[in-house]
Amino acid sequence: MKRIALLILALGTSVCFAQKDPEAKTILDKAAKQASGYKSVTADFDCVYENLAEEKSENYNGTLLLKGNRFRIDVDKTITFCDGKTRWAYLTESNEVTISPIEASNDDAPEEKFMSDPMSLYTIYRSGFKYVMGETEEIGGKTMQIVELAPENIKKPYFKIKYWFTPNNDLYQIKCFQKDGTRFTLTLTKFSTNQKIDDAELNFDAKKYPGIEIIDMRD
C-alpha cells in the first residue's frame, strides 16, 4: 500500500508542471551562464540516498576537482577520473579499476549525470523539462531560491527535480524524486572556482597502484 500511495503522489505532482515559467528560466539561465565561465571547480559535497518505502537512508561525502571537461570525484571508497571521453572508476578496497567510455544520455538521472559530467547539472533544464519557481529557504544565513523541474516525458523514472541556488547564482543543492519512493540529494558544502589544479591530480596512473586489476570495457 505504501508503494501505491507513493506512485499516486508522484503522478499527481507531475501534473502540476504545466508550463515553463519565465522567472524560473531566468534563474536557470543565469546559473548556467555563470558556470560556463568557470575555468576550474573544487568542491566538497554530501550525498543522501533515501528509500521512503523501506524507511532507510545512506549518507556519503565526497570531493570534486574539475578543470575544463576533466575531473576527479572521490566518494564512497571509489575514485572516478574522467577526461571528457573516458572514465576510470577505481575501487580502493579491491584495488580494481574499470575503464569505460562516457555515454551520457538525456535519460540519465541527476546522480548519473554528475558522475559523467558534473557541470551538466546546470544545463539539463534546457531540453525535455518544464520548470516553475519554488519558495525561498534560509540556509546558513543565505536566502536560497528554489526552482522545480519536471520531465516532459512522464515515462521517466523520476517525476521532479528541485534546485537550490545561492544569491550568487551558484548551485547549492539538488534533489531528485523517483517514482519508486527513493530520493537522491546532492549538497555542495564547499564550493570554490578558478583555483589552480595540477593536471596530475586529474589523471589516472595505474603505476601508482601495484597489483591493480584493470577491467577495460572500451571497444
In short:
16% of the residues lie in helices and 46% in strands. The chain is of the alpha+beta class and 219 residues long. The chain has one domain: Clam (outer membrane lipoprotein receptor (LolB), chain A).
Enumerate how many helices there are, as a single number. Answer: 3
How many individual β-strands? Answer: 12
Mean pLDDT: 89
Query: What is the domain tally?
Result: 1
Strand content: over 45%
CATH superfamily: Lipoprotein localisation LolA/LolB/LppX
Measure the end-to-end span.
Answer: 45 Å
Which stretches are low in confidence, meaning pLDDT under 50 for 5 or more residues running? 1-15
Looking at the structure, the CATH topology is outer membrane lipoprotein receptor (LolB), chain A
CATH class term: Mainly Beta
- Spatial ordering of strands, largest sheet: 7-8-9-10-11-1-2-3-4-5-6-12
Q: How is the biggest beta sheet arranged?
A: 12 strands, mixed
Spell the H/E element sequence.
HHEEEEEEHEEEEEE
Describe it for me?
The protein starts with a helix and ends with a strand. The protein has one domain: Clam (outer membrane lipoprotein receptor (LolB), chain A), CATH 2.50.20. The model is unreliable at 1-15 (pLDDT under 50). 16% of the residues lie in helices and 46% in strands. It is α+β, with helices and mostly antiparallel strands and 219 residues long. Strands 7-8-9-10-11-1-2-3-4-5-6-12 form a twelve-stranded mixed beta sheet. The longest helix is centred in the N-terminal third of the chain and has 15 residues, at 22-36.
